Amino acid sequence: MKTQEDIKRAEEQLIEVQKDYKYRLADYSIGELLKKFVVKGQSPNFEDDSISGLFVPQYQRDFVWAEKMQSKFIESIFMNVPIQPLFAFELDEDGNLELLDGVQRLSSIKSFADNKLTLAELEELDLLNGFTFNDLNTARKRKFLNTQLKLYVINENTDEGIRADIFRRVNEGGKRLEPAEIRKGKFIGNNLYSFILEMSESDEFKKLFSSTKDSDKLRGEKEELISRFFALSNNYQSFVHSVKGFLDEYIIEANKTFDEMKKTEMQNELFKTLEFVEANFPNGFRKSENSKSIPRVRFEAIAVGTNLALRENPNLTINSVEWVNSNEFKQWTTSDAANNKSKVIGRIEFVRDCLLGNKDLTLLTYDN
Predict the structure, then answer these.
(1) Judging by DSSP bridges, how do beta strands 23-29 and 148-154 pair with one another?
(2) Is the pLDDT of residue 229 over 50?
(3) Domain boundaries of the chain, sorted by first residue
(4) What one-character-per-residue DSSP string does 288-340 give?
(5) Which H helix or E strand runs over 154?
(6) Is 78 exposed, middle or buried, given 0-12, 13-18 or 19+ CB atoms closer than 10 A?
(7) I need a labelling partner for 57 at 20 to 30 A (CA). Which of 115, 159, 281, 337 fits?
(8) Which residues lie closer than 8 Å to 132 by C-beta, 6 or more apart?
(9) What is the pTM of this model?
């Protein structure tokens, strides 16, 4: 049973915390939002200098909705189904906004309004299947563009920590984003994570990462692998079982001592590892030349194991990595119990010891 004092203190805490979450609820027509909306990676090109922008930040995922999902969303608008409000941060006094949540919805609307989307697989409004925006009559076009959407605008004075918390709470409520994508918003202002994102887009890494796998299934995968490389290289023996928690904790703690000197050191270590892998592992991090993707457990084993070996012997040279085809290596890098602590440690140290010559390779077994 809570005492009156407990209730009073809880109420005071509620009031105090709410002060930090400042926002206003605004109504915009679809037409107004489209005039403001700036697609990720593009520069604003406003016809009217008085128009403020609605920008997609780096941490937001790219436009990934399939055409069927886009069509269903447009159908909902035509049917007057209540649409979940968008979220945005106020960037400056000019009224420019940063879109926090709603990229997929607003991008779908733009795709339709730009006649890039042809409606398909509609069930309730099946007579609209095959329609583009231009196929609608003038009155219906006008009604569509006049449809009102609600936008929560977070005050520009809200600090980055609160912004990151709002992003996390909005996006962790469902399974809409990959953990690495959530991290982009969660660690706004975190210098180490900004560096991780930079390394994930480096030519040195992308050269070994390039994939033919469905891009939607690889959302956030590059920064996920880079995060694992640094976190496990520096703290793999402390891994327990939750990769997400392990990486988040590493990013928070390591950022406290991250500076230009540390940045240079980490970059050199990553690039040296990638150079060694490219020169000595015929398929890089892949299982075979024709593999479409890089298994995370295989990447961890080879990348981190190589890095640890190079730390012990910076001038390391080897004759062969035939052991990656051994039954023992396959067992260490199976997806079964991939996040088991003993397996994480085991596969990393297996690669390290094979490279350093600390393991008797003649005892390894191979399938015929």
Answers:
(1) antiparallel
(2) yes
(3) 4-160, 188-363
(4) STT-SS--HHHHIIIIIHHHHHHHH-TT---S--GGGGSHHHHHHT-STTTT-
(5) strand 148-154
(6) middle
(7) 115
(8) 112, 115, 117, 118, 119
(9) 0.58
